[in-house]
Amino acid sequence: MSSENTELNSSLKNIKAYGQLLIENLRLVSTEKTTILLSSAALAAILGLIIVIAFFFVSMAVVLLLAKWMPLMYSSLAIGGFFLLMGLLLFLMRERIIVDPSRKKPRRIMGKSCWHQKLRMIIISIYDCLCKEIIIHGKDILLKKYGIEGP
User: Fold this and answer.
1) Which of 18, 55, 56, 96 has the most crowded CB, counting CB atoms within 10 A?
2) What is the C-alpha separation between 92 and 95, in angstroms, rounded?
3) Is a pLDDT exceeding 80 seen at residue 79?
């Protein structure tokens, strides 16, 4: 009876160690995914700043180009009106252009498998671990019960 208890205790220790390894793996994977997400956000911010600066200089060049055919004030107002129109279009189409892609992006970063598929894989792994422990220790118990020396 005591050998069965020690075998059960060793199986429980193995399951506990396996659970701790799964938690550590989850922590490391989440750290990796967070790093990828933050680096993507930093890159987007830097590129956004560069694009804003480029738009400023391009718009100034267009204003000066239009100033050849109309007064400088009117060409500045025309370019300002163009940017206001673009801002209005962006505001009206914000759901399609900005919100929907931002909902889909985290799924691409985090992976396409759902939480229930990952939970299923964890349960299957624990079940396999338990079955191996039971088969190994069960064989040893039968060998001892019938007085047969194991390999």
Assistant:
1) 18
2) 8
3) yes
Helix count (H) and strand count (E) of the chain? Answer: 5, 0
For the entire predicted model, the pTM comes to 0.48
Return all residues near 19 (Cβ < 8 A) that are at least 6 apart: none
Measured between alpha carbons, how far is residue 21 from residues 90, 98, 120, 123 in Å?
Answer: 47, 39, 17, 14
Q: What's the pLDDT score for residue 44?
A: 86
Spatial contact of 110 and 33, defined as CB atoms under 8 Å apart: yes
Are the beta carbons of 57 and 50 closer than 8 angstroms?
Answer: no
Q: Around Cβ 33, how many Cβ atoms within 10 Å?
A: 14
State the helix-helix crossing angle for 115-145 and 2-66, rounded to 10 degrees: 160
**Residue written as tokens 């931002």?**
102
- The residues, ordered by sequence, that sit 6+ positions from 144 with a Cβ below 8 Å of its Cβ are 3
